[in-house]
Amino acid sequence: MAASYLLEHEKHPHVVLERAPQIASAWREGRWDSFTLVTPNWQLQLPGAEYKGNDPDGFLSRGQVIDYFETYASRFHLPIKTGVEVLMVSQSETGRGYIVKTNRGQYKARNVIIASGVYQHPKIPPLARQLPADIRQIHSSQYRNPNQLPNGAVLVVGSGQSGAQIAEELYQAERKVFLSVGRNVRAPRRYRGWDIHRWSQLLGVFDRTEDQLASSAEKFDPHPTISGKAGGRTLNLHQFARDGVVLLGRLRGVAGGVLTFAPDLRENLAKADAFEAATVQRIDEYVSRNHLDAPEEKLVQLRDGFDVPLIDTLSFEQADIRTVIWASGYSFDFGLVRLPVLDTMGYPIQKRGVTEFRGLYFLGMPWLHTRKSGILYGAGEDARYVTSHLLEHSSESLLCEEAYLRGLLPAGEVPRVA
């Protein structure tokens, strides 16, 4: 929609194809009832709808996010066609543009922007098939509220943004919760008077570029686990343990109704503690170096998670676990693009969203250019770069085609057009 706004502003004809029957379907269908953004309001930076309200450090609820997108589309009259699923994108036979096959016919386009993101398919591990038939299994995207779950304890697998927030909601609703902890890290929601995202902005975290990463795999590292609920707060697994959540290591197997876990719980907790300590140290050094007026603060150091016994096996029956929530993330699939533009991991090969194929672009992915590329904060910046490139090269292509038709260029010099 950011790209559409910019193209509409330049009066460049285009259409947005959306598979779902309504826009913002991920927010409608793939989030729980009490969901809030973890990014503060001031990071709402879609072009033309930058946040200008009186609660910059607040957090939009699920319903407010949906309203934000609906208003954006209607206010700027974006040409969105819903219920249209793209099945294949291929280059035209002439090499001039692309053929886009959908469930509602075929389009021809000089330019194609793939903006389907990387959260396309809920990821559930193969061992899920080995769970007893009477155990209810859902992905975090299917979770709505505690009342939808059968009575009994709940095992949440994954301690990232979704897993930690869902586990917190469940135990606060007086459900018995077991949490299989991964290698997610933690940061304080607020420190020395400011939200952690304000500090991250000042420290240049959001502006780190892809070429500064140690490896391409780092693009998929999770953000620190925090919450925007009730005005925003820190999610500390040591606090979870203090409140009665049973912390477990990584789930690695199930057989005969018995779960087995890796002995890595304390290692994972220590990693989260170390990340938080390094984060506040960087902030303290920044405050001192720049002589900022930020009150000193010492975070409470909890260790409850280190004191719990390590559990390597757990019986569904003995623990009375009746539900498993897979907070195990999503997988991506760009196979609909029938061109050699994917690397060995199936990730698009591009530079700031621009591929080697003229007129083929990608948007809305983590580390498309910077760390903020994968969130609302960076969507507008990336869209501006891609649409500027598209408009510039579309004009060049039209001039070249006109010259060719007038006989001013030999056929071999007509470039692949966008």
In short:
This protein is of the alpha/beta class and 418 residues long. The protein is built from 10 helices and 21 strands. Strand 9, helix 4 and strand 10 form a beta-alpha-beta unit.
Model description:
This protein is of the alpha/beta class. It folds into 2 domains: 201 residues, FAD/NAD(P)-binding domain (3-Layer(bba) Sandwich), CATH 3.50.50; 207 residues, FAD/NAD(P)-binding domain. 28% of the residues lie in helices and 18% in strands. It is built from 10 helices and 21 strands. The strands form 8 sheets. The protein has a 5-stranded parallel beta sheet. Helix 1 packs across helix 10. The protein is globular, with a radius of gyration of 24 Å. The chain starts with a helix and ends in a 13-residue tail after the last helix. The C terminus is likely disordered.
